[in-house]
C-alpha cells in the first residue's frame, strides 16, 4: 500500500502539490493525469525520495518515507523516468544496467525471460545486438520498460511511459503492465491510450 498524507511539495517559486491525499492498494494501477505543471512528476519524484516534502508524509507499506528509510524502500521499486540519459553503448547494456547494482544482481534474468518480455513489447530479440544510437525513441522507451519489468519488483513507477509510442506499442505496454496483478503501479501520463487501461485515474 502507498499513502500520500497531506503531501505538499514546494519549490522556490511554485507549489505544484498542496495537501495531497491518496491511498493506492497493493496491485492497483493508478495514473496521475492533468496539464503540465500540475504536479504529476513532482509526486513521482517525491515517492522516489528525489525531492523533499514541505509538509505531510508518504508511507509505503506503513513505512514512513524519510532519508533514513529511502534506500530500503527503493529496493522495492522499479522506476522509469520520462527521459533516459544513461551513457550506455548497446541495447544489451540498457537491459542489463539495473542488474549491475549490488541489490539487483541476484535478479538478473536469463536470455529466455528477456526474449519473452521483448516479444510482449513487440520487439524482436535481434535488437539486443544493436547500438543504442541505432534504435528509435519508441524502441528505446520500450527497452527501458522491459528492463523495469525484468526487475520484478512489487512497485513500479513510470513517468510518461508511452509518450514516444505508436498505438499498437502503447496498448501492448499497458496490457503487459496490467497483467501483473500483484504489482502496484503508479504512473504519470497525458496519453489517453494508457490512462483508459489503468484501474484508477487521479486528475491533478
Automatic annotation (TrEMBL):
> What is the annotated localization of this protein?
Cell membrane
Sorted alphabetically, which PROSITE patterns does this protein's record hold?
A: ABC_TRANSPORTER_1, ABC_TRANSPORTER_2
The protein's topology relative to the membrane is:
Peripheral membrane protein
All copies of domain ABC transporter, residue ranges:
2-204
Gene3D superfamilies xrefs: P-loop containing nucleotide triphosphate hydrolases (3.40.50.300)
Q: Which GO terms describe its cellular component?
A: ATP-binding cassette (ABC) transporter complex
One matching Pfam family is ABC_tran
Per its record, what are the GO molecular function terms? ATP binding; ATP hydrolysis activity; ATPase-coupled transmembrane transporter activity
Supply the InterPro entries for this chain. Answer: AAA+_ATPase (IPR003593), ABC_transporter-like_ATP-bd (IPR003439), ABC_transporter-like_CS (IPR017871), ECF_ABC_transporter_ATP-bd (IPR050095), P-loop_NTPase (IPR027417)
Record key words, sorted: ATP-binding, Cell membrane, Membrane, Nucleotide-binding, Translocase, Transport
- Keyword Coiled coil found: no
What name appears for this protein in its UniProt entry? ABC-type multidrug transport system ATPase subunit
Amino acid at each position: 500500500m502507498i499513502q500520500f498524507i497531506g503531501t505538499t511539495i514546494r519549490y522556490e517559486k511554485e507549489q505544484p502539490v498542496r495537501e495531497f491525499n491518496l491511498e493506492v492498494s497493493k496491485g492497483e494501477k493508478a495514473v496521475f493525469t492533468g496539464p503540465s505543471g500540475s504536479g504529476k512528476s513532482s509526486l513521482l519524484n517525491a515517492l522516489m525520495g528525489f525531492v523533499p516534502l514541505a509538509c505531510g508524509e508518504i508511507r509505503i507499506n506503513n513505512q514512513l518515507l524519510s532519508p533514513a528509510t529511502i534506500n530500503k524502500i527503493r529496493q522495492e521499486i522499479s522506476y522509469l523516468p520520462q527521459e533516459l540519459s544513461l551513457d550506455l553503448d548497446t541495447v544489451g547494456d540498457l537491459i542489463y544496467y539495473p542488474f549491475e547494482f549490488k541489490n539487483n544482481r541476484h535478479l538478473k534474468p536469463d536470455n529466455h525471460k528477456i526474449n519473452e518480455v521483448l516479444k510482449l513489447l513487440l520487439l524482436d530479440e535481434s535488437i539486443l545486438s544493436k547500438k543504442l544510437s541505432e534504435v528509435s525513441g519508441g524502441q528505446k522507451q520500450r527497452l527501458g520498460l522491459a528492463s523495469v519489468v525484468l526487475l520484478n519488483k512489487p512497485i513500479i513507477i513510470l513517468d510518461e511511459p508511452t509518450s514516444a509510442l505508436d498505438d499498437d506499442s502503447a496498448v501492448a505496454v499497458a496490457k503487459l503492465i496490467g497483467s501483473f496483478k500483484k504489482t502496484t503501479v503508479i504512473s504519470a501520463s497525458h496519453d489517453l491510450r494508457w490512462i483508459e487501461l489503468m484501474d484508477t485515474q487521479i486528475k491533478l
